[in-house]
Design a protein that fits this description.
This protein has one domain: Ribose 5-phosphate Isomerase B, Chain: A. The protein contains six helices and five strands, in the order βαβαβαβαβαα. 38% of the residues are buried. The structure holds D-ribose. D-ribose binds next to helix 3.
């Protein structure tokens, strides 16, 4: 699976941890869209890069991290076909896949710890979409 990850300065530390985790995981290739330091930068720049790449099908999944995760999810969900889910724990990470078919996982680098974040990424990459009634609901997002 091809994955793209990005953060602003508020998510930089957690982004590095998550990227390294995915690199050690089998069957995944991960591209780092930046940022590459803790210097202050504007989160929409990275959010656009990652979201556009997922929207255009260049990557199957994306991961976005800013301080709260809020700004990144606001930008990402403007893109066609992107379902960016701001998750805070294992429950929301699992349900974002099972019910929402999330293709971008968004997290807050100043909100959650590194241990939880790694487990959330693991769930995001391994949990299948349930389909059925949830597929009908996703279709309604696109058509209504
Ligand atoms: C940066 O200070 C912070 O605003 C950003 O990381 C994010 O939380 C925005 O939603």
């Amino acid at each position: 699976m091809n994955i793209i990850i990005g953060s602003d300065h508020g998510g930089f530390e957690l982004k590095e941890i998550c990227r390294k985790f995915v690199e050690t995981r089998g069957h995944c290739r991960i591209t780092d869209a930046g940022t590459f330091s803790e210097d202050s930068m504007d989160y929409p720049r990275v959010a656009h890069k990652v979201s556009r790449a997922v929207s255009e099908g260049e990557y199957a999944r994306g991961i976005l991290i800013c301080g709260t995760g809020i700004g990144m999810s606001v930008v990402a969900n403007r893109y066609a076909g992107v379902r960016a889910c701001l998750c805070h724990n294992l429950f929301t990470a699992r349900l974002s896949r099972e019910h929402n078919d999330a293709n971008i996982l968004v997290m807050g680098g100043r909100v959650i710890g590194r241990g939880i974040a790694i487990e959330m990424v693991d769930l995001f990459l391994s949990t299948p979409f349930e389909g059925g009634r949830h597929k009908l609901r996703l279709n309604l997002i696109e058509t209504d």
